[in-house]
Amino acid sequence: MFYRESGQYKTTYESDQAIFPIREDRIGIAIIMAMALITPFIASEFILASIMIPFLILALGTIGLNVLTGYAGQLSLGTGAFMGAGAYACYKLATIFPDINIVVLILLSGVFSAGVGILFGLPSLRIKGLYLAVTTLAAQFFLEWCFIRIPWLYNYNASGAIEVPERRGFGDLILTGPSATATTRYYVVLAIVVVVTLVVKNLVRGRIGRQWMMIRDMDIAAELMGVRPLWAKLSAFAVSSYLAGVAGAMFVFFYLGAAEPSSFGISLSFQVLFMAILGGLGSLVGSFFGAAFIWILPIALRVGLPAVGVDVGAEIIFQIAQMAVGALIIFFLIAEPHGLARLWAIGKEKLRVWPFPYA
Amino acid sequence: MNARIQHVELHAADDGLKPGDVMLNIENVSLSFGGVKAITDISFDIRKGEIRAIIGPNGAGKTSMLNVINGFYHPQQGTITFRGQARSRMQPHEAALSGIARTFQNVALFKGMSTLDNIMSGRTLKMNTNFFWQMLHVGPARNEEIAHRLKVEEIIDFLEIQAIRKTPVGKLPYGLQKRVELGRALAMEPDLLLLDEPMAGMNLEEKEDMSRFILDVNSQMGTTIALIEHDMGVVMDISDRVVVLDYGRKIGDGTPGEVKANQDVIDAYLGVSH
Lengths: 359, 274
Ligand SMILES: Nc1ncnc2c1ncn2[C@@H]1O[C@H](COP(=O)(O)OP(=O)(O)OP(=O)(O)O)[C@@H](O)[C@H]1O
Ligand SMILES: [Mg+2]
Description:
Chain A: This is Amino acid/amide ABC transporter membrane protein 2 (HAAT family). Chain A: It is found in: Cell membrane. Chain A: InterPro entries: ABC_transp_permease, LivM-like. Chain A: Pfam families: BPD_transp_2. The structure holds two protein chains of two kinds. In chain A, 70% of the residues lie in helices and 3% in strands. Chain A contains 14 helices and four strands. In chain A, the strands form two sheets. In chain A, strands 1-4 form a two-stranded antiparallel sheet. A two-stranded antiparallel sheet of chain A has the order 2-3. Chain A is globular and about 65 Å long. In chain B, a hairpin with a 2-residue loop joins strand 9 and strand 10. By secondary structure, chain B is of the alpha/beta class. Chain B is globular. In chain B, the strands form two sheets. A six-stranded mixed β-sheet of chain B has the order 6-7-8-3-9-10, sandwiched between helices. A four-stranded antiparallel β-sheet of chain B has the order 2-1-4-5, covered by helices on one side. Chain B has one domain (22-270): P-loop containing nucleotide triphosphate hydrolases (Rossmann fold, 3-Layer(aba) Sandwich). In chain B, helix 4 runs parallel beside helix 7. The chains are: A mainly alpha, B alpha/beta. The interface between A and B is medium-sized, with 29 and 40 residues. Bound molecules: adenosine-5'-triphosphate and magnesium ion. Magnesium ion is lined by residues 62-63, 105 of chain B.
């Protein structure tokens, strides 16, 4: 089958501006969605619970960072803390409103992290680049401090950790807590991630996304076209930390099951940043690539190396994976700053003209 | 299709001014950066419907003058009256709101975006569907996007850049980048268009094309234009009136013929010592 645009004439701007204007892309997306839907029937519990669920959640977190850094050009090292803000907000909401569907609460908890994000985004109006990154780092440490020092946030548990309560919804399905099945959790996560990603896609291809990119590419010219930097930057912080918050809430409620402040430490911030860089800044599909790569590589090595007879112990494999990711980050920063998404785009472009490379 | 290309519907807003009325009046404006005096006590006006050239040797203060007009720099002294309203400390986005657009001496396009998106960005102020519709991208948001796409396509046709519609602007040659930047400013449907050296670095044919676009914008869309340009041939050909700056001062003002005959101007350009 050919991957070709030729012959697919757009007769309206509407079809030209559609979310997937090329027919082969639409077919591809349909196939991926179908595969995502049947995964629970073919994949083991381990794959579902330890790979697919966290991968999807982290992809959403990466999309959150991508909105801020990739689209609006504001570097942030506080993603982990913003995810934590969402998680703790969701925990409190679930405590206070035990009868409301947990999916609603998760989507609501993002509103709190968005508020926190706006607050820590205020300095971006005055400072840029590395210095802004430092203020987001301050957010990271301040929020971590809050998660430890404000016992109200974890309901005064002696352990200082939050434990996910059992919540039912959609009939009497157990959605969260120790007895929720991986399949249920997977479908809920998949639904949220797909819907939210579509919404973000809509934002970035419209006026609001253009304003973010205008600020990113040339803030002086953006102002002259009538963009108010205040509004554009703070809206990027708000949307970004909303997404991070929703991802954080899901991370605890559908993956970890219990969390402590260190779950949202600086290493999570960096992990998400690496996912965004490796996947490609300013690309939504890249966020999925990046998250998949960085989440799955260590697991694949852990499972794969012993299978081919190399048995060096889990600790070493973990370190090999870390080094491989580090090396790849450096490679991509130098050779292909637009990450895996760019390789993907180049691949598609090549396919488009195949078999005539110079067409 | 051809009919639409010739009758570009874009036009400046009706502001009650008749062609020839003073649109922008600059009185005794002075601007300095620390000790550097960029502009010293300059007065001139721009009238509705004209093409007003601002010329002068390097460092004369031409770009600074445009920056003052659209709110990037705030002069220490003097008043600026736009459409009869004196303005104080205007911000760039307010200038945009009041109908002033510009291009830059060093192209300032949005490098990561396509030609289409760059020109669409000029429509920012004219788009107003709220966040909710933007999230869904249906109904009003989609209709708005399509309506503005139509306008943008008219500009793309007008500037003859259909073939690079979806190309990232960073990949375009310099001459085309300048053209896209003009398109982006035109998308704002400005009343006053400021062009900072729109033909710098172009070859003869590109200059001719650009001159044609500027004249067409002026006559078909009724846009008032202030333009900085070093190519005297172009300036004398297309402008209605010329103001000449040198070392931050105004040394000449009038029709191209008058300016050409002005002894101060001749001295400045031939480099007579001061
Ligand atoms: N932001 C600034 N800070 C300090 N000095 C400035 C600044 N902008 C302009 N100047 C100074 O003001 C003077 C006028 O500069 P301007 O850019 O307006 O000249 P110009 O007429 O546009 O010159 P050119 O033809 O080279 O573009 C110069 O001496 C310049 O160094
Ligand atoms: Mg200049």
